[in-house]
Amino acid sequence: MRTIEKNKRKHESINHPFSIGLVVKIVATAVGFYVWGIDFIWVVLGVVFCWNILKGIASCLFSLVALIGFFWFLFIHVF
What are the transmembrane regions (predicted)? Predict the structure, then answer.
């Protein structure tokens, strides 16, 4: 019963059609376009469409750095 009441209160308080995140994204894109021009739009589109690929590459690079750090720790402290 309490959960239903909490969810009901949350849904009643959100009545505006735009979320704050959407407004921030639109303003950031407009400012970026104004400052850097059309190239900014191409970079944003590239990041949006390749986000999963970029996350995979970043994950691999982070794992590689962690592995190098682990082996460096072993060679310094063990050998």
Answer: 20-44, 56-76
